[in-house]
Amino acid sequence: MKVTKAQAQANRAHIVDTASTLFRERGYDGVGVADLMAAAGFTHGGFYKHFGSKADLMAEAASCGLAKSAEAATCTDRESFVRYYLSREHRDAPGQGCTMAALCTDAARQPAGVRAAFAAGIEAQLAVSSAPEEQTDAATAEQARARRIALMAQAVGAMVLSRSCPDDSALADELLDVCRADVLARMSGASAP
């Protein structure tokens, strides 16, 4: 039975979405093509009808996950986003959470296409997190971008460090709690506790 062009595009999108989740849960090396295709409900043989290589899918799945992360950041106010981002709930659900926190360390060892997808996703996240008042002049915009980069790096780093600890570790929670308080204080212009 011949698959329509629209159905082939829908199948590809489903595979990319499934891969995005599985890669965040298990890392790039923790997911094989056969497992991925089975999770998406397709046969292993169909993979190469959609993608030239696993690296091609990794780059596309990274772009998909990073776009979802940027979208999520715009759907709520900044304080609520930070509270969720630096929470145990987010920490314990890497497959549903931030692609950067789940895969940045893996992406650093991947082909250029994957790293380029991460760079574009990080730029997009920085863009959606800017406020209109930050664009007054070049110096102010540059300082605001530097603050957004520092806050993003702290939040992602805190999540990565927390996830590296055992689930029942007090340190895992402490990392999130301390960084959440610091990020929120810096966002409000107050001194961190």
TrEMBL record:
<keyword id="KW-0805">Transcription regulation</keyword>
<feature type="domain" description="HTH tetR-type">
    <location>
        <begin position="9"/>
        <end position="69"/>
    </location>
</feature>
<keyword id="KW-0804">Transcription</keyword>
<protein>
    <submittedName>
        <fullName>TetR family transcriptional regulator</fullName>
    </submittedName>
</protein>
<keyword id="KW-0238">DNA-binding</keyword>
<feature type="DNA-binding region" description="H-T-H motif">
    <location>
        <begin position="32"/>
        <end position="51"/>
    </location>
</feature>
<dbReference type="InterPro" id="IPR036271">
    <property type="entry name" value="Tet_transcr_reg_TetR-rel_C_sf"/>
</dbReference>
<dbReference type="InterPro" id="IPR001647">
    <property type="entry name" value="HTH_TetR"/>
</dbReference>
<dbReference type="InterPro" id="IPR009057">
    <property type="entry name" value="Homeodomain-like_sf"/>
</dbReference>
<dbReference type="Pfam" id="PF00440">
    <property type="entry name" value="TetR_N"/>
</dbReference>
